[in-house]
Amino acid sequence: MAETNLPERYSRSFFLAMLAQFVFFASNHLLMWTFPIYVSLRFPSATQVGFIIGLMAVSAVLLRPWAGAWADRYGRKALLIAGAAATGAGSLCYLAGQSLVWLALGRLMQGAGICLFTTGYGALIPDMAAPARRGEAIGLASITMPLSLMVMPRVGAAVQDHYGFPPLFIASCGLAMVAVLVSLGLPRGNYSGRSGVRRVSFRSVLGMRRLWAALAAVVALALSFGALSAFLPLFAEERGIVGGSYFFLGYGVAQVLANYSVGGLSDRYGRPRIIVPGMLGVAVAMALVSQVSSLAPLLVLAVAIGLLFGAAKISLDAFCVDSVPAEGRGAVVSLEFGVFDAGIGLGSLGLGAVADAVGYGNMFIAMAGLVLAGLLAFVFLHRRNGRAA
Questions:
Q1: Three-state DSSP class for 18?
Q2: Which of 148, 115, 140 is nearest to 27 (CA)?
Q3: 270-279: per-residue pLDDT in tens?
Q4: Over the stretch 172-213, which tens digit does the pLDDT of each residue have?
Q5: Cα–Cα dist 91/103, whole Å
Q6: How far apart are CA 126 and CA 128, in angstroms?
Q7: How far apart are CA 88 and CA 366, in angstroms?
Q8: Contacts of 91 (CB under 8 A, 6+ apart)
Q9: What one-character DSSP code corresponds to residue 83?
Q10: H helical segments located in the chain
Q11: C-alpha to C-alpha distance for 96 and 33, rounded to whole angstroms
């Protein structure tokens, strides 16, 4: 049966799962600032950099339809272990990074790892949460990603500066293996252990029109995150902003605060009342990034984007989980994360061409317009298809 927390506290396994996700993302975020630079040293055009960065999303998207079914059939824990192992193997592929083939293989493996791990984790956390506190539990469990983001890009930059890229990739692999070990400590029992319950397929979840509003918003936020992660390091170098990697420190601190506090607010006031102002603020902040030429305003915007993005994304996560019964959680998490992966990939692949054509600054302005379009689509579809949360 699903492991559920008592109303007044969360279980030990809940926090062990959080630790596993923290270490897993630490492995990924260690490369977040340095990997685009590593690629640009070999393939100088923004389109080429965006293509290689975006390959991570390709394998993640392709695996999502099966990952949700695997989480519901074989258990959440198995996906956490497989995802962390794939991510570690991907980091080792970068050691042969003079070859485009090895770079591509590493990105594809890490995309598969993110797909498997986040699908398992996203289904496991609601299993452990009381229904009345589901938004709060999702918010609390989600702080691990921005906590890692606060420190690991800067740590990765320091490791690269002092020791070079090969030790950096080995360290990333080592952290992924720690995530495997922590995941092994999780209990086998979860929702998927129950028998005699009809499972919900990925295809049937895709046909739930009440989810379309959330998915439109998710893809817009993912586009913005894809643009930031792929091109902000290069934008900062172009503008001569020293210490630009601290952007992700400010962003991570702010997202931790948002994730910790907003989940409970969305339980109380409703998901859309958090999603709408959050996305509007992200659009404005993305447009302002295009005007930045020094570190201080970049850090202010990092905090603003972290708060607003975190508030909107956590509320969207809960919005989607609210829309299906327990036996469909793996499928709906898989669908939502698949849309998010696709948006990140499009943000890297498509916006790289935009940056080549009009420059990084104008690319961020275009990105702000896409976030606004996603917000308008959310409002329209939510009203048209009825209130799902």
A1: helix
A2: 148
A3: 788 899 999 9
A4: 999 999 999 999 988 764 444 444 445 556 566 666 777 788
A5: 9
A6: 5
A7: 35
A8: 27, 31, 106, 110, 169, 170, 172, 173, 176
A9: H
A10: 12-29, 34-40, 46-74, 76-93, 100-127, 134-141, 144-163, 165-184, 202-206, 212-239, 247-269, 272-289, 295-322, 329-358, 360-385
A11: 19
Q: Specify the residue for token string 């691990």.
A: 144
pLDDT digit string, tens, across residues 229-269: 878 888 888 888 888 878 888 888 888 888 777 777 777 77
CA separation for the pair 121, 187 (Å, rounded): 13
Q: Which residues contact 195 (CB under 8 A, 6 or more apart)?
A: none
Residue 162: exposure state from Cβ atoms within 10 A (0-12, 13-18, ≥19):
exposed
**Domains of the chain listed by start with CATH number:** 12-190+205-385 (1.20.1250.20)
Instruction: Check residue 327 and report its DSSP letter.
Output: G
Distance (Å, whole) CA 198 – CA 209: 21
Confidence at residue 326, expressed as pLDDT on a 0 to 100 scale: 61
Report which DSSP code applies to 326.
G
* Chain length of the chain: 389
| Contact present, 233 and 244 (Cβ < 8 Å) | yes
Pair of tokens at residue 363: 């690319």
Give the Å distances, CA to CA, from 336 to 118, 313, 329, 341. 11, 11, 11, 9
